[in-house]
Write a structure and sequence with these properties.
four-stranded mixed sheet; 142 residues; 2 domains; alpha/beta; 2 helices; VOC domain-containing protein; 2,3-Dihydroxybiphenyl 1,2-Dioxygenase, domain 1; 8 strands; VOC_core; 15% helix
C-alpha cells in the first residue's frame, strides 16, 4: 500500500455565515494575519495565515445548507467546552499559557481547563464564535 510521501498540512478551512466576525476572532485571539484571497465570484472568502505555522481559509457559508452553524462537539449539541477533549477541535500550542488563559477570561470566553496526568501539559478548551472547537496546550513544563 502506497503512503503519501512528504505530506504536510496545507491549510484548515472553516465555513461561516459571517466570515469577517470569524476572521477578527482568529486575528485577535491567535495573531493570524489576513493575506490575499482569490475571488471565487459566487461566495466570499478570507484567507488568514498564522506566521510560521499554517493558513486558514474562511469560506462564506451556503445559505441553503441544512447543517447547524457549529458542530460544538461529537458528543453534545450544546456549547460546553468540557466535551471537547474527545470532540472535534483544532489544537494550538503557546509558550505563554497562563497569560493566554487570562486573556480568554478577560474576554468572557467560556473555557474548560485540565492537565494531562503527568502534569507536563496543560490544556484549555473553548469555541470560536461559530461553535468550532479549539484547544490550546502549554508549550512549557509547569
Amino acid at each position: 500500500m502506497a503512503v503519501a510521501k512528504s505530506a504536510c498540512l496545507n491549510h484548515i478551512s472553516r465555513e461561516s455565515s459571517d466570515i469577517r466576525r470569524l476572521a477578527n476572532f482568529y486575528k485577535e485571539i491567535f495573531g493570524f494575519e489576513e493575506i490575499e484571497s482569490p475571488d471565487f465570484g459566487e461566495f466570499k472568502v478570507i484567507w488568514l495565515n498564522l506566521p510560521g505555522s499554517f493558513p486558514m481559509h474562511l469560506i462564506e457559508r451556503n445559505p441553503l445548507t441544512k447543517l447547524p452553524e457549529g458542530p460544538y462537539s461529537s458528543t453534545a449539541a450544546v456549547a460546553d467546552p468540557s466535551n471537547l477533549p474527545r470532540g472535534h477541535h483544532i489544537c494550538f500550542t503557546v509558550s505563554n499559557f497562563d497569560s493566554f488563559v487570562q486573556s480568554l477570561k478577560d474576554k468572557g470566553i467560556q473555557t474548560f481547563q485540565r492537565s494531562l496526568p503527568n502534569g507536563k501539559v496543560r490544556q484549555i478548551f473553548f469555541f470560536d464564535p461559530d461553535g468550532n472547537g479549539l484547544e490550546v496546550a502549554s508549550r512549557e513544563a509547569p
